[in-house]
Amino acid sequence: MSPPVPPELLTDDVSLLMVLIDTNPYFWSSIKQSFPFSKFLSDVLAFLNATLLLNQLNQVVVIATGYNSCGYVFDSAGLVNARAESCLPELEKFLKNDASMSTEDTVNGVGHSLLSGSLSMALCYIQRIFRSGAGHPQPRILCLHGSPDGPGQYVAVMNAIFSAQRSMVPIDSCVIGAQHSAFLQQASHITGGVYLKPQLLEGLLQNLLTVYATDMHSRNFIQLPKPLGVDFRAS
Amino acid sequence: MQRGTNGEGRKFNGNEEEEEEEEEERNQDAWEKMYADDRSWESLQEDEYGRLRHVDNKALHHAQYRKRLRSASTTRIQKGLIRYLYIVIDLSRAAGEMDYKPSRMVVVARQVEAFIREFFDQNPLSQIGLVILKDGVAQCLTDLGGSPESHIKALLGKLGCSGDASLQNGLDLVHDLLNQIPSYGHREVLILYSALSTCDPGDIMETIQKCKKAKIRCSIIGLSAEVYICKYLCQETGGVYSVALDESHLKESVLEHAPPPPAIAEFAVSNLIKMGFPQRAAEGVISICSCHKEIKVGGGYTCPRCKARVCELPTECCICGLTLVSSPHLARSYHHLFPITPFDDVSPSLKNNPRKLPKSCFGCQQSLLDPGSMSVSCVSCPKCKQHFCLDCDIYIHESLHNCPGCESFKQSHSVVIRVSNGCLYSSGWMSRIHIEKKTLSRKLPKEETLLSLMPGEDNFDDRQCMKDDLCSKPPAALCHPIFLSWGNWEVLKLVICCRVQ
Q1: Which is the most buried residue in A11, A75, B49, B232, by most CB within 10 A?
Q2: Does a structural domain hold residue A125?
Q3: Could you read off the pLDDT of B139-177 as tens digits, one per residue?
Q4: DSSP secondary structure string, B470-482?
Q5: Residue B205: its pLDDT value, please?
Q6: Which member of B332, B361, B408 has the closest CB to residue A117?
Q7: Is the pLDDT of residue B209 over 90?
Q8: A22 pairs with which residues across the strands?
């Protein structure tokens, strides 16, 4: 663990960024011509490294949202000179494991990834940070999501959203897929996060850096993308 | 001091010293009170080397919490989800007493504020109104409404005490107000009573019987001492009577009324309620709002039946009387309908063998190994068999209402019943029920249960619904869950989705 930090160092806003990456293989294979997973990953890794560079006390945790399971793949806490690339072996292990759990032979469309599970895990982790006492970093959740919403997850996702709202954790969302995600629109609307669906995925890194890298205090001073409307549908 | 003082003098001196001591004690009381109230010494314990240590009451706390959880999950009772609650606040002379710091009414106002917020969080479809007792009369401060801010603002603006409190006037007023609400709502009164007496114009026993007949559940929290008439009122109407010991106990007693109470048996008829899910009007549209009768620009909601514009949800449409909600509002009460199972304690044989257990909590990744004792303190979910630390256990059951383990694996699916072709505003409610079945882990409900859901529905074909298990897709258009205060818990576990035009 890192040595205890003197309080004067904590005057600057320290962020805990929980990043939920959609790894649904069916989704990524459906758009591999226009935007391959490798390009997505390299953008995300650059963004994570940038976040870590912004403040030496910033913490980044990556949770993979798979098709059959969810898992932690990276935690920068306790690492000296943490670099996000070091999550790759863990991510590969997770993907293999996730694929091996698959029982269905064919999938209708691109299927749904388990957003409710990774959101719940992220919130549990954030509660642990809250328990660690005063001077904890400011947590926020960023969902990088592509798969369409799974109607069966509605109740669980809403529960997670309300719990995040009660503990004042904003849920930012960046939708990579073709359609808007009603779940994530509601999540960001209710918790006060930013919802964005980039027009061009080639510029994903720029979107990530300009919108999601800013800490909660700085957001008061910048023009963030405004939501066009919130879809309150249930599923 | 003089040398060789005689006995008497010494005695005299002694008396003086005693007096001084008494005075000192009184002085000490003032600054010591903080510690005395805190009872900080009780959380200290001596270890085997004689050092003072903080008592680890985490385990104890957790045990208590699990007991509570178990007792709550074993008793399945019907609960009233749509509540109409009047909070009656005694602002008579007695509320100005200073035994609570700074005064009773300030403390009560603070607790009511916290209660209102908690209440709407737990009962998003319910409404609250405020009534104050002052100068022998009861006065309606706010009408029933769903906005916490307006109630809190009204209460804080009216804080001042005078005169006597009249329980009868309060009950009469509330009775008249609650008589107008629809029959499916649960009528409740929560009285915060500071006075030790009630100054009534007539026979209060008659009023109590009247409330009992109107099925108004009256609960009282006293601030001074137990009063017979209060106890009698609560007994008769099925409410709870408690007397607060101090501020923290008062807070506890008030917040106990936030979760939905058990429904009164003869009153708990299951029924379906018509609800509308308004669209948010586009920004910049100018319209006259039906609730304030003013011209407003953008940001309102449009009633799907009569197209009137309302300012906030949930509410009742002033024109056609339709209950208007939004689906996130409904979703807030889902955790009452889909409670997650309590986690199991890990068996002692496994506990002593930490190698067989995972190293860290599935939820928060905290190490499960207790560094001091080398034993493991964790619980596991009976469904997904993942292990969680005790802190996550509490968080998951009290705030999150999701098991991260079950949500992270594909196999856990609930039964979802969808109603297609059903249209709220056309001829019938619903024409056919489809059961969307995914990898089913739970038993399907029995046919009777489904039937009892919709008695007298002419188009409702139960056989069809059981066979037509896998409806290809839910209706693509607006799909909103509808459930309300019908029936028993078992049935409530199903979400009925109904298409709204």
Answers
A1: A75
A2: yes
A3: 999 888 877 888 888 988 888 888 999 999 999 999 999
A4: S-SS--SS-EEEE
A5: 93
A6: B408
A7: yes
A8: A65
Q: Which 8-state DSSP code applies to residue B85?
A: E
Q: Does A94 touch chain B (CB under 8 A)?
A: no
B363 touches chain A (CB under 8 A): yes
Cis amide prior to B102 (ω within 30 degrees) = yes
Predicted confidence (pLDDT) per residue in A31-61, tens digit: 888 899 999 999 999 999 999 998 888 999 9
Kindly indicate the confidence band of residue B428, based on its pLDDT and cuts at 50, 70 and 90: very low
Tell whether A77 lies on the interface with B, counting CB pairs under 8 A.
Answer: no
For an interface test with A, the pick among B283, B364, B388, B414 (most A C-beta atoms closer than 10 Å) comes out as: B364
Q: Is residue A69 part of a domain?
A: yes
Using a CB-CB distance cutoff of 8 angstroms, which residues of chain B are in contact with residue A155? 331, 334, 338, 414, 495
Closest residue, chain A, to B493 (C-alpha) = A155
- Residue B272 in this model has a pLDDT that exceeds 80: no
List the domain range (segments joined by +) for residue A157.
7-217
Cβ within 8 Å, pair B404-A127: no
Q: Could B327 and A167 be called an inter-chain contact, meaning their C-beta atoms sit closer than 8 Å?
A: no
Q: What is the mean pLDDT of chain B?
A: 70
Enumerate helices (H) and strands (E) in chain A, giving the number of each.
7, 6
Which amino acid, A154?
Y
Q: What is the CATH number of the domain that holds A131?
A: 3.40.50.410
- DSSP assignment of B262-300 equals BPPGGG-------EE-PEEPPTT-EEEETTTTEEEES--
Task: Supply the pTM of this predicted model.
Answer: 0.70
* B127 Cα distance to chain centroid: 12
Could you report the per-residue pLDDT of A127-138, keeping only the tens digit for each? 999 988 777 889
Cβ <8 Å between B479 and A234: yes
ipTM of the complex: 0.89
Residue of A nearest to B411 (CA): A68
What span, in angstroms and rounded, lies between the C-alpha atoms of B396 and B347? 21
Is residue A144 situated within a structural domain?
yes
Cβ contact, residue pair A127, B408, below 8 Å = no
Provide the number of structural domains found in chain A.
Answer: 1
Residue B292 has pLDDT above 70, yes or no: yes
In a domain, A224, yes or no: no
Q: Side-chain half-sphere of B454: how many Cα atoms within 13 Å?
A: 20
